[in-house]
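Hi R.,

Quick one: here's the HD-GYP domain-containing protein sequence you asked about.
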Amino acid sequence: MNELRIIGSKVETSVQEASFQFANVEASLMTRTPYYEMIRHHLKKGAYWSLVPSSKQGMAESCTVETGEVEVHVQGDTYRLYETDVLSLIDLAEFVVFHAVRDTTLIYLSSQPVYDPYFELVGKIQKLAVEIELKDGYTSRHCSRIMEWSLAVGRELGLSPERLYHLQHGAFFHDVGKVAIPNEILGKPGRLTAEEWEIMKTHPLRGSELLREIYSDQLSEPSVIVEQHHERYDGSGYPFGLRGDEIHIGAAIVAVVDSYDAMTTNRIYQRAKPPQQALQEIKQLSGQLYDPRVVDAFCKVIERDAEIVRLAADR
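And here's the predicted structure, written out as tokens:
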């Protein structure tokens, strides 16, 4: 059972030894001894970070808010932590999800080594992100936009913090399978042949396979989102022809957001459409290609956040 304590205590830190950054979270190894590791995490406003359940017995973990403000979701409850507050856990049995209300710095203390596996995992992820950029250069900030907009839609739909955490990763890597598609197909300026299109349609499955190789079974949900993000509400999508509620809600979200972003971005084979025209097309295809719940939520997000429309208009 998780033990939860919130106390007021300041953590003294030492010089950073190594660091990495991914999905609006930066982590730096500060101290390592035979008995514990101390890691500093910088979470940008809106970012999600999680402590993952471990099978190791006697594992003690704590997170101190050095600066900022964060929501913590654990055991079905939500806590708001402020500067100097500490969350302590022993033998973690379920996900603990952190959501940065403001830019936040956390000091994470673990009684068992966690940094090296974490560093290796993120290294593989970052390598994939660079490969996507090089293979499909038109995207620039495409993956980050899809992640940010998908999270906004997920919050509008009231998804659980754990689902939002997985959506963050699944949305960011929705197109990771394109690293396995030949350049002459991926960058072809004209219409693809039937054979080329069949090859292109393999990228969701290839992306899912890549993520399953990287993530543990406990973090397999992002691979499902990647696998299904080209499924369509009426069953006309690929690779499985899923329909309606058979489609993972995260994949249904990415389908709408990705389509809107594609419509409003200049591509090799088409010019960008005005944001309002693209939005109108999304609405017209609600209940056919796209989940109506997601379309409604996406429209609310856009109506509330003019920055999304402005970004699309500037591309």
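The two ends are 50 Å apart (CA to CA).

Cheers,
M.
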